[in-house]
Design a protein that fits this description.
Helices cover 77% and strands 0% of the residues. The protein is built from 12 helices and no strands. The longest helix has 31 residues.
């Protein structure tokens, strides 16, 4: 019980520091593009070029209408950049902030939250590409679009505990970072970013064994006017609850050691 309370206290302190986390995340974004004329919109240009190039190429290879394929690809790529950005940067986030951790009493989960907010700022910029594509290839408008809100909440919640748990484990085991870096390119093709699970026919179950598939589906389907299956929300909710609990327990158990790890 004491172990759980330490982790829970750190979690609640982190949530209270949400405005400060956003301030630092916004500062990191501005610092990254300092003295750049377009600033973070270079990220938007890169995404737009990727969507245009991959869209016209893969629509031909998969023999899918551009009006169907390009919006799906665009939304999938933007969500993937959010997911992969959080996962790939998470292993180094504690080590990068080692000086703060050792000298200032700061909640440990403050740093994964800052990472998540910075990636969400990038995500918000990339949504401009999604809006442009949807203006060219408009989807059907219905009540499914309302599901974008709970979808984003579930995605953000799951990415928070995933980033936090990876950062905590990586503080102790530095091999986690290179392992994730090596594995993520494979995950791009195992995750239905370019394609949809239904296009795998009899092998569709393989895509649903990948937890990242649910994160893509939660946002992409409602944007396109489709309603995700109920089990997508059930799996995502269960993942959020158990993942958060696991992270809090792990943090509480190793709370006094983290400062020495980094």
């Amino acid at each position: 019980m004491i172990v759980f309370s330490k982790g829970l206290r750190d979690f609640t302190d982190t949530i209270k520091a949400l405005p400060l986390s956003f301030f630092f995340a916004w500062g990191d974004t501005k610092a990254r593009y300092r003295r750049s004329f377009l600033g973070p919109f270079w990220l938007v240009i890169g995404t737009a070029i990727g969507v245009a190039g991959l869209g016209f190429l893969w629509s031909q290879l998969l023999n899918v209408e551009k009006s169907v394929f390009i919006p799906s690809l665009c939304i999938g790529l933007v969500i993937w950049q959010l997911i992969s950005g959080c996962i790939m940067e998470a292993p180094s986030i504690m080590v990068q902030n080692a000086r703060l951790i050792k000298n200032i009493k700061t909640p440990f989960l403050f740093f994964p939250l800052q990472l998540l907010l910075r990636q969400m700022i990038n995500f918000a910029h990339n949504l401009l590409v999604v809006v442009a594509v949807l203006l060219i290839f408009p989807p059907s408008i219905n009540f499914s679009q309302i599901l974008i809100i709970p979808g984003i909440v579930l995605v953000v919640g799951n990415l928070f505990w995933i980033s936090a748990l990876i950062s905590l484990i990586s503080a102790r085991y530095r091999d986690v970072g290179p392992l994730i870096t090596s594995f993520m390119p494979l995950m791009f093709f195992l995750t239905p970013v370019i394609y949809r699970p239904s296009q795998l026919a009899m092998s569709e179950y393989i895509a649903w064994m990948n937890p990242l598939t649910y994160l893509i589906t939660l946002i992409r389907d409602p944007i396109e006017g489709l309603t995700p299956s109920l089990y997508v929300y059930v799996v995502s909710m269960v993942s959020l609850i158990f993942g958060t609990a696991l992270t809090v327990i792990f943090l509480g158990k190793k709370y006094n050691r983290i400062a020495f790890w980094v």
